[in-house]
Design a protein that fits this description.
alpha+beta, six-stranded antiparallel beta sheet, three-stranded antiparallel beta sheet, 22% helix
């Protein structure tokens, strides 16, 4: 897809609309996603493209899935994305096509990186699973660099660690990224009364 076919202001308008619907100031939303008000204002005005990590954090701040943030509402009881119908959206460093629907357990997308391009460093809650579909990329997680990942290579890691993807090959690279949402309900640890054979110093 050529750059002229990509609406570079799509996410800024969407974020501004959702923020206004909630009656939040720039400062309110910026604090929720760990951005400065200047950075958020530049995203809303399309002067800056958000990273994947920022998109995920924005979706969670609004209490919606990544699909709802990017594509809007859907009414079906399933979410089908045929390859021919994928919609590419420009993000910082490349393009992204959202694959997941409005179910809250995970976000899935295909990242497209041109030769030599990188996405900005990201970090967010939950876990991340990455699978290289085409091309060759390096994945840096915190201080570790996993070099020359090629088609079929996969990595699973905690997403709170800073991470970035760089296309180090000679052609365009496509990478499948799946990010989980952290659980919203935490179950209390069972007490000794609930497990009569357990003792204070002896694990079950």
């Amino acid at each position: 897809m050529s750059e002229s076919e990509i609406d570079t202001g799509w996410i800024g308008r969407r974020i501004g609309k959702m923020r206004a619907e909630r009656g939040w100031t720039l400062a309110t939303l910026a604090a929720r996603v760990d951005l400065s008000t200047t950075q958020l204002s530049r995203i809303e005005s399309a002067a800056r493209q958000p990273s994947i990590g920022t998109l995920i954090e924005l979706a969670r701040a609004f209490g919606v899935t990544l699909s709802e943030l990017v594509e809007g509402e859907e009414t079906s009881n399933h979410h089908l994305t045929r390859r021919a119908d994928r919609v590419s959206r420009q993000i910082a460093g490349g393009e992204a096509s959202t694959l997941s629907g409005r179910y809250p357990g995970l976000d899935a997308l295909v990242l497209t990186l041109e030769r030599g391009k990188s996405i900005p460093e990201a970090r967010h809650t939950g876990e991340e699973f990455l699978c290289v579909l085409t091309g060759t990329v390096d994945l840096t997680i915190d201080t570790d660099t996993l070099a020359a990942l090629t088609a079929g290579d996969t990595v699973h890691f905690p997403a709170h660690l800073p991470h970035t993807v760089t296309n180090t090959g000679k052609q365009t690279a496509e990478v499948l990224i799946v990010a989980t949402h952290p659980p919203t309900v935490t179950l209390a640890a069972p007490t000794a009364d609930e497990h009569p054979h357990a003792t204070k110093d002896q694990p079950l």
